[in-house]
Amino acid sequence: MADAVERAACGEGVGVLVVGGPGMGKTSLLREAVGCAGGRGFHVVRNLPDHSGLEVVGDLPVSFSVDGCRFPVARLAEWLQDLPATRSPVLVALDDVDRFPEPARRTVAELARTTRSVAWVATAGEAPPAEHPGATTVELSGWSTATVAEVVARRFDAVASVELEALLARAAGVPELVIGVVDGLVAEGRAQVVGGQVRVDSRHLPRRVHELVHRRLNSLSAKAWQVLRVASMLGPHFDLSDVSDLVGERTAMLLPELDEILAAGVLSAFGDHFAFRHDLVWDVVVDSIPEVLRTALRNDIDRVVGRRPVTRESRPDEAKRGSHAVLAVGGLAAAGRYAEAVRLARDTLEHPVHSASALELEGLLAHLLLWRGESEEAVTLAEKACARSASAPTVAAATAVRLVARSLTDPQLARHEAAQVSAAPTATDAVVATSVLARTSWAAGDLVDGLQLARHAVRDGGGHPWWGAWLSLELVDKLGQLGELAEAEVLLDSIGGHHDQWALASAPGRVAIERARLRARAGRWSDAVAQVRAGLGTAKESGCPIVVPAALAVLAKAALENGELPAAVQHVRHAAAVAAEAAVLPAISCDWVDLRITATTHGARAAVHALETRLTGLATSPVLYAEEPGAAAWLIDLARTVGSTELATTALDMIEHLAAANAGLPAVECAAAHARGLHDGDPALLDRAARQHVDAWAADHAREALATHAQAPAVEPGWDRLSDTQRTIARLAGAGLTNQQIAHRVLLSPHTVNYHLRGLYRKLGISSRVELARYV
Predict the structure, then answer these.
(1) How much is the CA Rg of the chain, to the nearest whole Å?
(2) What's the Cα-to-Cα distance from 738 to each of 744, 750, 768, rounded to whole Å?
(3) Which part of the chain is the HTH luxR-type domain (predicted)?
(4) Cα dihedral sign, 230-231-236-237
C-alpha cells in the first residue's frame, strides 16, 4: 500500500484491488492505505458504509457538495476536476467495490484508467468484478498450518497441543478467526503452557469468536438468519431440498435468503449441495439456537427429512460415518472444493471411525494436502498409512503421495527413496518413483536420462486412474523445455480421460498452465495469458497453490514482453509469497524474470549484484539453461556490459557442459551455439541459433545479436590489448558519456576513469574521443 501511495505522490495513476474472503484482512489493508495517504497530505475519498455514495475525509475545499462533503459516484469525475490545479494527490478508497451498482463500478474503472496523481485502492470478495483489468491485484488467502503454528509460538513461546491444533483447524486459516480464537482463549484464561505445549481446558469456542461471527452475520435479514440456523442443524454439509422441506417453502422462495447468506461468505455452494465454509462458524450458528429449540428441530428433521441431524450430540455409528465421510470428501474434491474436503476429512478423523475408512480418509487427505502445498503433513499422513496398512494397494498409493510430496521439499532424499521403490516393475509407487527420479535427474542436468525416465513412467503408468495425468504432465513439462511443442500438445490433449472419479489425478489447473507455457515458448503471448488465467482460476477455486508460481512466471514474462514492468514485478512478488507459504512445483523462471526486471530497471551492475546475493546459484543451475535456452547468451551479454569475464565464462561453461552431457538434444545444442556465437562474435553460430531456436524469445535475442554484429565495424588489432574495464570505459566514452557519467556507471572515480582513458589511448595509438569512436 505504501508503494501505491508513493507512486501516486510522484504523479502516477495507480490501481490496487485487494481480493479475499471475509476475515482475510482486506479492510485492514484499506485502513493502512488511508492512514499512509493521510500522513502524506493526500486528499482522501472513501465510500459510505451503505455504498450509496462517497465522502471526503477531513477538510477539503470543494465547490459543490451533497450533505456536506458527500456525493454519488457519478459526480466523482466532476469533483476531481473541480480541485485546484495545485492540488495534493488523491486517494480513493473503496471497500467491497463489488457491492457497488454496476454503473458505479464502470465509472470508477474508467476514471482509474484516465486520471493521474490518484491512487485507487479497492477491496472485493473472492470473485472480483471484471471492470478493473488494469489494477494490480493482491489476493489474500488463508494462513497455512505452519503460519498458524507461528502465531501460537509468537504468542505463547510454546507449541500448540493437539487439542488447540484441533480448535484452530476449525478456523480454516482465516486470520480474523485464528486471532479471535487465540486472543479469546487468553482473555478467558483458558490457555496454559504446560511442558512446552499450549493446552486448553476444552474445545468450546471463546466468546470473542462468537462475537466475531455474529458481527459478520448482523447484516442478514431475520428470515435469512432463520434459514441459516435451520440449515445448521442438518450439519456442516446439507442439501437445499432438505432446508426447503424444513421451513415449509419451495426452493425458489428461498433464493433471496440464500443470496444474502452466500454474500456474507458463510456458505459455499456446488449444485444443490451447500457447506459451511468454516466449521467454526457452523459451531457458532448451532450454539445460537437454544437447547429446547434444538430438540424440537431434531424431531422435525427426523420427521420431515427422514433422518437424524448431524450434530455434535448425535453422530452416526463409526462404520456408516466413515463410509459417508469418504464419499463426501471425494465429492468435495471432485467439485474442486479442496479446502472444504480437507476440513471434513480432518473433522471426521478427530472422532472414532472404522479402521478401513480411516485409512482411506487419511490417503485422500494426504493427496489433497499435497496439491494444497502442505507437503510435510502429506508425508506424515502417508507414512502413517504405510505403517498401519497391510494392503499392498493402500501402501503403494501412500508411498506415491509421499515420494511426490518429498520431491518438493527434499529432492535428494526423494531421489534416494525413489531409487529404492522403483525396483518393482509395475506397481503404482514404482511408476511414480520413476517420475520422481526423472524430475531429480533433470534438476541435476541429466536431461537425456530425465526424459527417458519420464517416458517410461508414462508408458507404464500413463493410464493409471490416480497418477496417469500427473505422469503425463511431468513429461509435457520436459518436452516443452526441449522445444518438442507438437508432441507436448498431443500429450496434453490426451490427458482429459485419465482423471479419476475424484479429480485428484493432477493438481487443479495444471493442464491449462502447462499449455500456457507451451504457447509462451512459441511466442503466442495472448493465448498463453488466456490459458494461464484459466488455470489460475481453477487452482484458486480449488485452493491448490502448488502450480501457482509456474503460472505467475508466464504472466510475468508476458508483462515484461509488453513493457508492463509494474505488472511483471507484482507477478514475481506474488509467486515468491506463494512459494514461501507452501511447497510448490519449482519455477526457476520466476527468478529468471526477476533478474531481467532488475537489469531493465536498475541496470546491468545491479543485476550482477543480484546474482551474487539474493539470486545466488541461479547462474550455476542446470535447470535455468534447460528451461530458458537464451539464458546463457543473455548472461554473456550482461557480463560484457559490466566487464565480468567470470560471469561470461560461467554461463558459457554451463551451457556447453549441458550440451556435451546431453548429446542429441537439438534445443540444448542450439542454446550452446547461441552462447558461443555471442561470446566469440561468430555470425555463423548466431545465424544457426536464430534459425533453429524454438523458443521465440531466445530466437529474437539471437537475431538481435546477429544484426548488431553485422552493423559493427571491424575491430582493430589494438583492441585485443585492452582490459575488460578499459573496453567498457571505451564503449561508454565512444557513446558520448562524460567522465563523471562513466564513473557513475562503472563505480569508479572520475580520476580513475581518466587514467584508464589515457592508458587505452596509448594502446590504440590515438589521442582523442573522436578517434576512439571508430573503434566502438
Answers:
(1) 31
(2) 10, 9, 13
(3) 715-776
(4) positive
Q: Contact, 581 vs 617, CB < 8 A?
A: no
Q: What is the CATH number of domain 219-314?
A: 1.10.10.10
Which residues face 267 on adjacent strands? 276
Q: What is the DSSP letter of 305?
A: I
Contacting residues for 746 by C-beta, under 8 A, at least 6 apart: 605, 642, 643, 725, 728, 729, 732, 753
Q: For residues 265 and 216, is the Cβ–Cβ distance under 8 A? A: yes
Decide: helix, strand or coil at residue 769. helix
Same CATH topology for 219-314 and 717-772: the answer is: yes
Q: Give me the residues paired with residue 139 across strands.
A: 19
- Cα–Cα distance list, 218 to 150, 325, 573 (Å): 32, 32, 37
Q: Record the pTM.
A: 0.53
Name the 3-class secondary structure at 716.
coil
Q: 717-772 maps to which CATH number?
A: 1.10.10.10
For the domain made up of 2-139, the CATH class stated in words is alpha beta
Domain boundaries, the chain: 2-139, 145-209, 219-314, 717-772
Q: Are 692 and 674 in contact (CB under 8 A)?
A: no
Distances (CA, A) of 265 to 122, 143, 281: 18, 17, 10
* Contacts for 510 with CB less than 8 Å, ≥ 6 apart: 473, 535, 539, 547
Tens of pLDDT, residue by residue over 516-573, are 999 999 999 999 999 999 998 888 877 788 899 999 999 999 998 888 888 999 999 9
Buried b (16+ CB within 10 A) or exposed e, 108-142: bbebbeebebbbbbbbbbbebbebbeebbbbbbbb
